[in-house]
Every structure is written in C-alpha cells, then in structure tokens.
Amino acid sequence: MNLSDEGAPTAGRMQQKRNIQIIEWEDLDKRKFYSFGVFMTMTIRATVYPATLIRTRLQVQRGKSLYSGTFDAFFKILRVEGVRGLYRGFMVNTFTLISGQAYITTYELVRKYVSHYSEDNTVKSLVAGGSASLVAQSITVPIDVVSQQLMMQGQGEYLTRFRLNSNTDSGKPKRVFGQTRNIMAQIFAADGFRGFYRGYVASLLTYIPNSAVWWPFYHFYAEQLSKLAPSDCPHLILQAMAGPLAAATASTVTNPMDVVRARVQVEGRTSVVETFRQLIAEEGFWGMTKGLSARIISSTPTAIVMVVGYETLKKLSLRPELVDSRHW
Questions:
Q1: CA–CA dist 151, 163 (Å, integer)
Q2: Where are the Solcar repeats (predicted)?
C-alpha cells in the first residue's frame, strides 16, 4: 500500500469491515467540498420544489376540498397557474442554500466527534443526522414560513392567513421580491418576529427524527444491497437505490408530524398538540397520511439526486493522496 502513515488509519476507519466505504470528514478537501456543494444543493432544490409545493397544499386543505390527490393537484396547478404556479416562493426558498451547507457541515463534524466515543456507524449516523437537522431547521424555518405562504397563493390562497395585495403582481421586475416583501410585512404586522418561527417546535419534531432515521437506514440499505449485488456492481448504483428506500421509511414514520407542522405554519396555529387533536377528530387516521404519497414521490428523486450528488461530491473532494487507494 502506498499510503502515508496519516492515510493508513483513515483507510481503516473508512473500511470498518463494510462492503461500501464511507468517506469521513477528515478525508475531504474542504475547498472542493463547499464549492461543489452549493451547486449540488441548488440543483436538488430546483428539481423537487414542485412536489414540495404540492405536498404543502395537500396537507393544508380540508379533506379533498381542492385536490383529490398528488397528480390531480399537479395537473390542476399546471392548467390554472402554469409552470410558474409550481414554483411559487422558489426564489425566497433558495436562501435555504445556507441551511443546506450548515446541515452538511454539522453532519460531518458530529460524525467525526461521535467517532471518538463509538465506531458504530448507526450511532454516528443517528446522532449526526439529528444534530444536523437541529442546526439547519433553526435557519430554515423563517424561510419556510414565508415560502409556504407564497406556495399557497393562487388556487390555495383561501386556505392561508395572508394574501398578496393585487398591486404586487404588476410589473415583472418586482414580481418575486415584491411578493416576498408583501408577505413578510403581513407576517410581521400580525405576529411580530415570532411569526417567522411559527411551527419551529413542530419542524424540529418532524425533521430531527426524519434526519436521524434517514441516515442509519440509508447506510443499512446500501450495505444490504451490496451483499445481494454482484461484486463488480458500482457502489454508486447501490447507494442511489438505498437513498429512496431510506427516504420512504423516514417519510412514513414522520408524516403525521409533517402534516401538523404544515398546518401550524400556514394557518397560524400556536399549539402543536391541539392541531394534532383537531386533525384526528376531523379526518381520523387517514388525516395523518395526507401528502404522504406526494412526500414519497418528491423524496424519491430528491434522495436519488442527493445521494448521487453527495457521494460524487465527496469522491471529487477526496484528498489527492487518498484517491488512488479507493475502489468504488
């Protein structure tokens, strides 16, 4: 082996008797990692945003008052509002690029920290995933509150507390940011600064478990698939298959709280518990599954793009002295 003394222990950590190697934080060239990471995150956001908008509208509507399902919502929005309708609130949502980078950094650093106490990959993935989501949601929630209000405009505007003033729609130069400023002013006037963190607790209760569940299941599914696949099968293909499986698992587990989160943020509710009780009382068990199909549909391409992008990003960002020692 033509590895330096520093690289050898690293190789041992990456192997951990696993078929699929995991690239850890200390193996990366950070400059490449962050440069490529911004592009990757933006691509993912643009790809899955329409499904996120559809999911939000499905979760907020009462029963099937507006749409009967995911595909019905897609075609109705496309017919009535056009492609632009599927990207309402997208520009303000791009600011989540900041939270995306914070998420990636926190996940990798916490994995490194936990490795000092445990070499169990499940433990490292669970703790790092939950911690990364806590940091990211603290940045994301105000952006989500504004973008979700914008998502509900058009066909869904009667379901939300805030509606755009008609004069914000005149003139293309001020269309996007004019609408954003209009919604932000209404939120601040009604609820003050706290209004931008409405649903923060519900978001944490949704996304911390989702992230904590996703990473361990992702590595679990990838490892199991590697045992079933031919030895010459590229690991990236197995990882691309494991991502959607993990996403579907995590989405199913956390969807009830995601429905509550959407309603708290869009309808201006203050109590997570009361919102949950009302959901059960009005719509029963099936109310907790609202938007689940849209969430799984959106999470499938998201997971594939994210996994392929993230794993490729890490491979491209690998420190030069480690490149030749890896087999993918």
A1: 11
A2: 31-113, 120-224, 234-316
Tell me: the pLDDT tens digits for 165-201?
Answer: 765 444 444 454 678 888 899 989 988 988 899 888 8
Based on the number of CB atoms within 10 Å of its own CB, is 187 exposed (0-12), middle (13-18) or buried (19 or more)? buried
Residue pair 299/247 in contact (Cβ under 8 Å)? The answer is yes
Question: Is 8 part of any domain?
Answer: no
The predicted structure's pLDDT at residue 278: 87
- Average pLDDT across the chain, whole number: 83
User: 291, 199, 209: which is closest to 249 by C-alpha?
Assistant: 209
In a domain, 22, yes or no: no
Say which DSSP state 324 is in.
T
Q: How many domains does the chain have?
A: 1
The whole-angstrom separation of Cα 235 and Cα 20 is 7
Q: What pLDDT shows up at residue 39?
A: 82
Query: What CATH code is carried by the domain that includes residue 201?
Result: 1.50.40.10
pLDDT in the model for residue 171 = 46
Q: Which residues contact 152 (CB under 8 A, 6 or more apart)?
A: 56, 57, 60, 159, 160, 266
Question: How is 184-229 classified by DSSP, letter by letter?
Answer: HHHHHHHH-GGGGGTTHHHHHHHHHHHHHHHHHHHHHHHHHHHHHS
- Which of 102, 108, 133 lies closest to 29, judged by CA? 108
For residues 66 and 74, what is the distance between their CA atoms, to the nearest angstrom?
12
Domain that holds residue 288: 30-322
Range of lowest pLDDT (274-283, 308-317, 318-327): 318-327
Asked if residue 146 belongs to a domain, the reply is yes
pLDDT at residue number 16: 45
Domain presence at residue 15: no
Count CB-CB contacts under 10 A for residue 159.
17
Question: 142, 143, 144, 162: which is closest to 153 by C-alpha?
Answer: 162
Rounded CA separation 8/1 (Å): 9
